[in-house]
Amino acid sequence: MALEQRPVGKLDRAVIFLGPPGSGKGTQAKVLAAKCCVPHLSTGDMLREHVANGSTLGLKAKPIMERGELVPDSLVLKMVAERIERPDCSHGFVFDGFPRTVTQAKYLGELLKRQGFKQPFVIHMVIGNALLIRRLTGRRTCKVGGEIYNIYDRPPKVEGICDNDGGELIQRPDDREEVIRQRLHAYEKQTSPLVSYYRRLGFLHEIDASKSVAEVEQEIIQAVSGIRGAR
Ligand code: AP5
After folding, report:
1. Closest of 42, 17, 2 to residue 224, by C-alpha
2. Can you tell me which atom of ligand 1 is nearest the CA of 211?
């Protein structure tokens, strides 16, 4: 059986996708979570849901996200802690866009230890800035199922319509070029220190995220298959 068709099996830990905006975290995290039968936890999606529902958290997060800045740790940490306590997370989960600061990473480390999980496996999506702008300005997302497309590299069969469920494809408000630049700046300043933080702990696994979606997926599956049974 081809590697990409084999089930990866259950996880017993958190897999963390770490990388700049547009590196493909969402695209790959969804696939890996489905293959491992564990939840895909995107803090960006959770926050956008709060914004859409007009919750207290959503009202606080909306202007911050529109500027392309990070939502304060205090708000994000509470939201994540509540989510991973749910029963569907008992065999592990795939984080996409969390942690994003050293404070978030330290808090997560404590939380995972308390809940008896093994050490997390961190996938670092390595990619140069030049490709990111094209990927982000070309991104379109299904309003119904969340499937991610790209008008340049991964277009739907019919323009503006999701292949899977016929949902409308929309552009994220923070995918305008001036906001993208601020998001890249926030990544460099606040999130990139996590690369050396997790490298020092020995949890980091680097993936070349500039390759095609299928090639990146294959590299990730190979890497994650290797951790089962590990510490
Ligand atoms: P979030 O939603 O997490 O956005 P992000 O980190 O900026 O990442 P993106 O979703 O933009 O990119 P991605 O890496 O998932 O790429 P994708 O797979 O979609 O966060 C949004 C905001 O929420 C933040 O700015 C912040 O305000 C707030 N926030 C979220 N989490 C937070 C936290 N923990 N703390 C504080 N604030 C937080 O792919 C992009 C495009 O490229 C798509 O079109 C896709 O089709 C295409 N593509 C993907 N892979 C490939 C490939 N290999 N080849 C060609 N095209 C590809």
Report:
1. 17
2. 53
